[in-house]
Write a structure and sequence with these properties.
Elements: E1 9-14, H1 20-32, E2 36-41, H2 43-46, H3 51-58, H4 75-80, E3 84-90, H5 92-100, H6 106-113, E4 118-122, H7 126-130, H8 132-143, E5 147-148, E6 152-155, E7 161-165, H9 169-179, H10 197-201, E8 216-221, E9 226-227, E10 233-234, H11 241-252, E11 256-261, E12 273-276, H12 280-291, E13 296-299, E14 306-308, E15 329-331, H13 335-340, E16 348-355, H14 359-369, E17 374-379, E18 391-398, E19 401-410, H15 411-428
Parallel strand pairs: 1-2, 1-3, 3-4, 4-5, 8-11, 8-13, 11-12, 13-16, 16-17
Antiparallel strand pairs: 6-7, 9-10, 14-15, 17-18, 18-19
Helix pairs in contact: 1-3, 1-9, 5-8, 11-15
Bound molecules: cytidine-5'-monophosphate (C5P).
Length: 430
């Protein structure tokens, strides 16, 4: 079979249910599919299956305790580059600890530290499974973006025939592949539960759907239009694509997003609050009234630098014998700088710099001048990226210098990577 999980790091958590023996087959299947499997067990699980079995199957040491001198496996490094963490079987006790945020062993600590998608396969006695505490814990975890594979019905170790069985390893494997965007054709009937909400949200393997939960984010996007008279205006070629892609990516990782947008020809993503504006002054008014309640503000709008001193009430007429028309332009307010300079309720502030020359120096001086936390530079002199194109290539700076470079790729992917970087940088400042 083709190695469908090639280059995937999967953390397999085994807690102390009798079904722990099935996790051995699951581990073997995942390895066979090419995954790099790292097993973490609870102490209880080690009474049911030996660590040595998983060490032999996965080819890696198996972690149990946080402070074990012998193991030296850190809960952080365990999940750091993981594509997925799956707990199979997940006992009532482990589910309760996950829900409460308890980190008293290597598995529960790794769960709290995980930013990758996390899946659990509850398996236990039917009464423990039906208990209101377990049910509420499962619901809470689902709400927080954890994927839950419902237990199967059948003979349980306690002798009754009811729900609570760990699904067969092949089914758990299919569940994992589905989450990771891979499809496996199985000989057994698929028992895959209906995709829960996070599945449709997880359009990227980079983002945990709950990564931005609870964050309020405002994004400015599109051009502004500065009227000269009732029919003419000054504007620019911004399509709004980058700002709208950022809004979608922030929304997809659970943030509450407000998009303050100049006139564009694209639809705002579902679930995003859209505030439509026209001029830079309208945009400033909208941003000013909302910025204080945001955690993060991103200025992706191409705001017109100047506007006409006055807007003619009637259409400006061509005059016979007059070959020149002088427009008196005045500077527009700098919206993102006004956010960056807020003295109270200042959100984490991110700006964009569209540059054509001395790009890095210009971006870095803009970061300082506008009091930004991060600036995203794109070189608009390059034809294939920037204004109105579907692709972009960006470099990100903070006050200490370059923090990331994302090579040319679709704006949607750039947006997802930027969102991850922005949220991580924001959280690091808390
Ligand atoms: O100064 P410049 O226009 O190059 O700066 C770009 C950054 O500043 C972008 O983040 C843009 O959204 C923001 N900006 C703004 N208000 C302006 C001009 C730019 O918010 N008047």
């Amino acid at each position: 079979m083709k190695a469908r999980l090639q280059n995937r790091k999967i953390v397999l958590g085994v807690s102390g249910g009798i079904a722990a023996y099935k996790a051995c087959t699951l581990c073997r299947l995942l390895v066979k599919l090419g995954a790099d499997v790292h097993v973490v067990m609870t102490e209880a699980a080690t009474h049911l299956v030996g660590k040595a079995t998983f060490e032999a199957l996965s080819g890696h040491p198996v972690g149990v305790e946080i402070f074990s001198q012998a193991q030296r496996i850190s809960h952080i490094s365990l999940v750091k580059d993981a594509d997925l963490m799956i707990i199979a079987p997940a006992t009532a006790n482990t589910l309760a600890k996950f829900t409460a945020g308890i980190a008293d062993n290597l598995m529960t600590a790794a769960f709290l530290a995980a930013t990758c998608p996390v899946a659990v396969a509850p398996a236990m006695n039917v009464n423990m499974y039906r208990n209101a505490a377990t049910q509420e814990n499962i619901q809470t975890l689902k709400r927080r973006g954890v994927y839950v594979l419902n237990p199967a019905s059948g003979p349980l170790a306690c002798g009754v025939n009811a729900e609570g069985r760990l699904p067969e390893p092949e089914e758990i494997c299919e569940f994992i592949c589905t989450i990771l965007g891979e499809r496996l054709t199985l000989k057994v009937d698929p028992l895959l539960p209906k995709p829960q909400k996070p599945l449709e949200l997880m359009q990227t393997k980079l983002l945990n759907p709950a990564f931005g939960a609870g964050l309020k984010v405002l994004i400015t996007a599109g051009p502004t239009i500065e009227d000269l008279d009732p029919v003419r205006f000054i504007s620019n070629r911004s399509s709004g694509k980058m700002g709208y892609a950022l809004a979608l990516a922030f929304k997809n990782c659970g943030a509450e997003v407000t998009l303050v947008s100049g006139p564009v020809n694209i639809k705002a993503p579902e679930g995003v609050k859209l505030v439509c504006v026209r001029s830079a002054q309208d945009m400033l008014t909208a941003v000013d009234s909302l910025a204080g309640e945001q955690d993060i503000v991103v200025g992706a709008a191409a705001v017109a630098d100047y506007r006409s001193l006055s807007v003619a009430k009637d259409k400006i007429k061509k005059q016979d014998g007059v070959d020149e028309l002088c427009l008196h332009l005045i500077k527009n307010p700098d919206i993102i700088a006004s956010v960056g300079m807020r003295e109270v309720n200042r959100p984490y502030t991110v700006g964009f710099a569209a540059e054509t020359s001395h790009t890095e120096e210009n971006a870095q001086s803009k970061l300082i001048r506008k009091h930004l936390d991060l600036i995203v530079l794109n070189n608009v002199a390059k034809k294939e990226i920037g204004f109105d194109s579907n692709d972009n290539e960006v470099t990100v700076f903070n006050k200490d210098g370059k923090v990331a470079h994302f090579k040319t790729q679709p704006k949607s992917i750039i947006a997802e990577r930027l969102v991850k970087l922005i949220i991580e940088s924001f959280k690091a400042c808390l």
